[in-house]
Design goal:
Layout: H1 9-24, H2 29-45, H3 51-66, E1 70-74, H4 76-81, H5 83-92, E2 97-99, H6 106-118, E3 124-125, E4 130-131, H7 137-140, E5 141-142, E6 152-156, H8 160-168, E7 172-176, H9 183-187, E8 190-192, H10 196-210, H11 215-223, H12 227-246
Parallel strand pairs: 1-2, 1-6, 2-3, 6-7, 7-8
Antiparallel strand pairs: 4-5
Helix pairs in contact: 1-2, 3-10, 3-11, 3-12, 5-10
The protein binds adenosine-5'-triphosphate and magnesium ion.
Magnesium ion binds next to loops.
């Protein structure tokens, strides 16, 4: 048991959830490495939602509200860390879920679907009858009514190659990735440099706030958003944070 008083309680509990996910067979072993890499970047941003992250989360919410066919992609890390939060966002933003795995096995896809359903998920695309062009077979499988035809996709923790292939299909891709330098972060339409445990609830809050705006006002938010600029602000925030460390006695 990790005592609540531990200064890094949240981070350690998150780690436990990922380990549990691996034991249950919903998270891949590689998911542990991804989490470790994420934790390192979370340390650098100060384990909080930065100004630039909130800015991107607002743009993400506006994009989801404007979408004709939004889909939220779920992998083994997302299912282990934020099952309830991702379902809540799915309902609020009328965006069905689809399980989409880099290290895909039908067994793991089914386990994640059952896991999400046990948390109350109702709206999940479950077929794998279409292929994303330009990727090898297993990594390309998607639902022909889901990701394949979605116009706006939220992909927490996506691989760079797949992110690029989805963009080449003409989709708006919103990525959540703690590493502002990753290929995914560099390619995506909107990159949220924040931990999924904070990012998903933050997007939900923005959806609740922005849903009263009319389409023009939402379009203004989307048009006013610049991903390159937001990413360089994220890097500046890391630099500032590092400088405050070097100022310590
Ligand atoms: P890319 O393929 O985009 O160049 P990569 O190969 O470095 O990235 P992957 O292993 O494909 O990285 O994906 C893991 C990514 O997810 C990492 O960039 C990591 O920072 C990020 N990540 C891991 N855990 C979290 C989390 N809890 N919240 C947000 N991002 C996370
Ligand atoms: Mg990768």
């Amino acid at each position: 048991m990790i005592p609540k008083s531990h200064p890094r309680y949240e981070s350690l509990m998150t780690r436990e959830l990922i380990v549990e996910g691996v034991k249950k067979g919903i998270t891949s072993i590689q998911g542990l490495i991804a989490q470790g890499r994420g934790e390192a970047f979370d340390y650098l941003i100060g384990e909080k939602s930065t100004e630039s992250a909130l800015h991107a989360e607002k743009a993400a919410a506006a994009n989801l509200l404007l979408a004709r066919k939004p889909v939220i992609s779920v992998n083994g890390n997302v299912a282990a860390l934020v099952p309830e939060e991702v379902i809540r966002l799915s309902v609020l933003a009328c965006s069905p879920l689809e399980v989409n795995l880099f290290h895909r096995t039908e067994e793991r896809v089914n386990k994640i679907i059952v896991h999400l359903q046990s948390y109350g998920a109702r709206n999940i695309f479950t077929k794998s009858d279409a292929l994303i062009p330009g990727l090898e077979h297993e990594r390309a499988k998607v639902d022909s009514n889901g990701i394949f035809i979605a116009d706006v996709l939220l992909v927490p923790l996506e691989d760079g190659d797949r992110c690029k292939a989805l963009l080449e299909m003409g989709k708006t891709v919103i990525a959540i990735d703690l590493n502002p330098l990753s290929r995914t972060a560099q390619y995506a339409t909107v990159t949220i440099v924040d931990n999924i445990i904070r990012a998903v609830p933050n997007i939900s809050k923005f959806v609740e706030k922005l849903k009263y705006l009319d389409r023009e006002e939402l379009q203004d938010i989307v048009r006013g958003y610049n991903n390159k600029r937001t990413l360089s602000r994220a890097v500046d925030e890391i630099k500032k944070n590092l400088e405050s460390f070097s100022d310590m006695p």
